[in-house]
Amino acid sequence: QTKTGIALLYDEVSENAYDIRLKLTKEVLTIQKQDVVCVSGSDHSANHRTVTLRRQPVGGLGLSIKGGAEHKVPVVISKIFKDQAAEQTGMLFIGDAIIQVNGINVESATHEEVVHLLRNAGDEVTITVQYLREAPSFLKLPLGSPGPSSDHSSGTSSPLFDSGLHLNGNSTNTAPSSPSSPIANEPKYEKRWLDTLSVPLSMARISRYKTGTDKLRSNAFEVLALDGVSTGILQFYTAQESADWLRAMSTNISDLTLQNMKMANKCCSPSDQVIHMGWVNERLEGADSSQLYKFKFLALKGSSFYIFSTPPVSTLDWVRAEKIYNLCEVLFKIHKLWLADDCWLQANLYLGIHQDFDLEDQRPYCFSVMVGHGKSHYFNVELGSELAVWEKSFQRAIFLEVQRTGSKTYMCSWQGDTLCFTIDFALGFTCFDSKTKNVLWRFKFSQLKGSSDDGKTRVKLLFQNLDTKQIETKELEFQDLTAVLHCIHSFIAAKVASVDPVFIDSQCIARKYMYSN
């Protein structure tokens, strides 16, 4: 998507926000700030401009000012009136900070001091100005060309007094003075939007939260490039604008990620393809039990689920993952959805969404990945559409891996005997002696009627004998029981999906409820 619009850049240190323009293309987000540039004439710097104004009998200096040292901002030109002295110079612009008046420095002057100086400066007033590129938004300066009719600010009034200097000051000359006008050889200036920062969107990430907290920024978010360069906090006037920009940027980032996946898959065998990858936030439990989140990059590739601190950009990067898990031995669970009516939809309502965590945090769109030895990773994404994609991708990746693998065998024991337990996509469950290889029992997936475990190492599997219709209990002990139970779940789900194509869609909780609402 391509998109252009006005936003604010919020400075968390000064707590001020500045007007900016955003330009979104398929691959780059560009931040622009307004500045005054020299477009013709002598090659003078546009940083400081010295202009002589001739006070007119009607209209005075033809400008208004705002700000002052008492507000911790310079005095700036807030209005320029059409066909009056200030406009006729062609060298003054709304947003210009007044540096000097008739040689007197006013950078630290109050509003009233500058007003007094300008009103009593005589018929000719020489001012030195510099365009204030980061004018705080509370000044409510119009954006665009001079004149009250071009006010593109938010429309609310500024808390600062707007002093009009379009009336006569203390003039000693009652005769009409010649109007201020640009001299032929003088440089000409224009106010333009200039690029100040370009953020590549390939492998970029977005955050709506204050760093390391669960505090959601109001109508604002931050975009961070792969190399760590940040846009800063982008703030929008309405929730709708913020949502529109968030979706547009997320769409472009996702499209670029898809391109990167296709490039990576050209170098990979058919059995080792990337199914999905992208940024998430992982919740970490601190020593003081405070909840912290860190960016992680997840990937589903071939037989494995990868967790990275930074994205893999080359073939060799795949071996430096923080964690790698076999896809057959993980279990994906949705924990939170946020519906259109802004209510929480959590576990145990009617969707079968699992809740095994203490979910006191305020982040929506959460899921966990259960791994071996009873451990879990808890993640959050920014959009409901991202949650739906991860859910579908995990299902697809796991089902593909089950079909590729065909079977998994685990060492186990019971009553002192060392046994092997095999889960086979075609045959079901088989238990045999590890030494003699003699088969002790075999059941189809459809014969498994229930199970229970002690949460540690021991499990009871309840099978129905096809001949007697009686339930037979088989007890086994595994070193990593969680991995085995996840594997059983993966194989059974893949088996059902292979005979019922609708099964996958029926299991997509996030997609079903995010889109229907």
TrEMBL record:
One of the record's GO cellular component terms: cytoskeleton
Gene this protein is translated from: Sntg2
Keywords: Actin-binding, Cytoplasm, Cytoskeleton
SUPFAM superfamilies: PDZ domain-like, PH domain-like
Comp. bias regions, Low complexity: 143-160
Record region (Disordered): 143-186
Pfam families, per database record: PDZ, Syntrophin_4th
GO-annotated molecular function: actin binding; structural molecule activity
Protein name per the record: SNTG2 protein
Similarity annotation: Belongs to the syntrophin family.
Species of provenance: Pteruthius melanotis
Origin: domain of life: Eukaryota
Glycoprotein as UniProt keyword: no
Location relative to the cell: Cytoplasm, Cytoskeleton
